[in-house]
From TrEMBL:
Biological source species: Aquincola agrisoli
Domain Soluble ligand binding as annotated: residue spans: 211-265
Domain SLBB: 126-206
The protein's name in its UniProt record: Polysaccharide export protein EpsE
GO MF terms held by the record: polysaccharide transmembrane transporter activity; porin activity
Keyword Iron attached: no
Domain Polysaccharide export protein N-terminal: 43-119
Location relative to the cell: Cell outer membrane
Recorded topology in the membrane: Multi-pass membrane protein
Membership in a protein family: Belongs to the BexD/CtrA/VexA family.
Keywords associated with the record: Cell outer membrane, Ion transport, Lipoprotein, Membrane, Palmitate, Polysaccharide transport, Porin, Signal, Sugar transport, Transmembrane, Transmembrane beta strand, Transport
Amino acid sequence: MASFKQNNWARACVGAVVASMALAASLPLHAQNTAPNAPIPASSTPEYRLGAGDVVRITVYQNPDLTLETRVSESGVVSYPLIGQVRLGGQSISAAERAIADGLRNGNFVKQPQVTIAVLQVRGNQANVLGQVNRPGRYPLEVADMKLTDLLAMAGGTAATGADIVVITGTRNGRPYRAEVDLPTIFASQSRGEDIVIQNGDAIWVDRQPMVYIYGEVQRPGPMRLERGMTLMQSLATGGGLNQRGTEKGIRVHRKGADGKVQIITPAMDDVMRDGDVVYVRESLF
């Protein structure tokens, strides 16, 4: 009988150990390594800050009569029942919620107000996307750390005629700001720092792609995209190569100089082409 009780007691102990191990395995790694009652680390992601023109809905838990849909004025304030003018412009959502809660509490209107603010329309933080993109226009910055690639994606990406270089203009710390970003380098290894954070009022300009023009005795004369480091031979190959009447000895390139004047040069086949170059292939005399 004693042996039977001891076996049951041993089984119970083993079952408790297995259950505790299973519970620990089911918890996230940070929960397994965190002491009880330890505070949860706050997120490092910056919050969206309200701007003039934003439309918000303000609600107070168990106080439906205090629900308000309003627009943040140009001066950054809203008029809220009982407490009057409250400055919300430039504040994060959580800070704006605390400002209204403090006003209700300090005025003895609500003892323990639980305020929630939802942004219905983003109008205060916007940026312009212009040039060679699929959907140019003015776009809201719905998150605080929206990157250049995020905004270009909202605009449908660069068009087929768009260049790889993107220009960002705006203001930083009260001073004019301008930056040129080479889009392909953003996705190169360890180059994510080039993906600039867009701020309110920025303008993104995507210029047309660089072009080279080929005419004369080639298979497919006309304009074509100038790829990076493209040589004369590669540009001719893009045009289908010389036809039966063309000759390499008769190739001339018309290139505009820094002074705006056009120069006529005789390039080698491995010379790198430039934006706006005009390649002329002459007819063979024999």
